[in-house]
Amino acid sequence: MAGLRARRGPGRRLLVLSTLGFCLMLQVSAKRPPKTPPCPPSCSCTRDTAFCVDSKSVPKNLPSEVISLTLVNAAFSEIQDGAFSHLPLLQFLLLNSNKFTLIGDNAFIGLSHLQYLFIENNDIWALSKFTFRGLKSLTHLSLANNNLQTLPRDIFRPLDILSDLDLRGNALNCDCKVKWLVEWLAHTNTTVAPIYCASPPRFQEHKVQDLPLREFDCITTDFVLYQTLSFPAVSAEPFLYSSDLYLALAQPGASACTILKWDYVERQLRDYDRIPAPSAVHCKPMVVDGQLYVIVAQLFGGSYIYHWDPNTTRFTKLQDIDPQRVRKPNDLEAFRIDGDWFFAVADSSKAGATSLYRWHQNGFYSHQALHAWHRDTDLEFVDGEGKPRLIVSSSSQAPVIYQWSRTQKQFVAQGEVTQVPDAQAVKHFRAGRDSYLCLSRYIGDSKILRWEGTRFSEVQALPSRGSLALQPFLVGGHRYLALGSDFSFTQIYQWDEGRQKFVRFQELAVQAPRAFCYMPAGDAQLLLAPSFKGQTLVYRHVVVDLSA
What we know:
The protein is mainly β.
């Protein structure tokens, strides 16, 4: 046993010494000063703060425990995406008195604990709506004394608990881009120091918080190219049949009246059918008692009426139009008076006559010869105040107004529009209680006339050399006038209610238009421009909110 105890003795001493040495090491290490955290040469750092001057970029080798960072007089101008993501505990960030001009969309991503952000006295002139994305804990934000002229809508939406905002010292342009800010200021619980407009002149030095929303006219419209039909055409007529939307186009170059169908799924016009017509100038669809007819007016070879047979799903010729009476048709107008269906044909030949046809039982029959030997160019039916009228324009004399006589069951000449000695096209519209005529001229200015109770008076002249087509139309409360020309682009005018005149609105690149046609197609509002020399273009009317 003694030998056994003698052998165990040295082992116990080694164990005791080892334990004592370990304890001494702990004591020595406990007395050493803490290790200095990393700090870039341009910064002064403590364990949880950093103050940096003249830095060439956002310092990367900072202590991860930093909760406060100040950058001043930095030698860079752009704060890039994720610039501070290596400092996830940051609560205070001061970026004042630098030359920053650009802040990336996600510059502050990852700073979910940041409460105070100051970006003052810089050269920032624009921000993205995503600049402050991810700052869910931010309570104080200052963008004072920059060059901000506008702010993107909803830029402050990610800042759920923002309590203080300072935008002073910026040259805000109080146009439609700032309208949302006026609305936001009226409803936010954030305390915002007073800010003032630098422009436009009517709002200069006005407090943004006090701007009346009614002063912002921010809804505008535009016509954008929607579909290109790769063929010329000289007329376009939309129509509804069996709950579907169609378009009839006269295509003399293709020797056809082409029928297109609106595809509500693809939201495009698609080929549907063709009617042979070697010299078509107008294809006029009429739906009478649920039956579809298409009047095909041709310069040569006679004019015809076709009927759609739903059983054979084909167009078949129904009847001819008297070639002795209608020799050189130029326009067709269809209308209904006291339950009876009529169509009128404007004849532009020396020997023909503009004529009226009436539907009776199983066909259209000649009803009245209106205007002989006057080279008529266009027709416009006007049904106002219970007095149906037909206006006939001519290249050889002033437009003639006919009024329907219910006693005689025919049109009676009422007078002439003497202000215009000749007119290629005549159209009408109503604005408020007033009735207007639009008359296009190939040589000379086109005219806008207003009915004064006993006569028309001129209210506007529009330059229109080479014009053969014009069309007033109304889209969702916006009134326009399309005026075409063979020598220049098409002009779109918009009606100014205050001035009671059309003002130039937009130019469309349409070559030699022969008609304009407004066609609502579901939620798409379309303007068709058949061209004699080029492609037929389809434009869509869009509403643009400039405050968005």
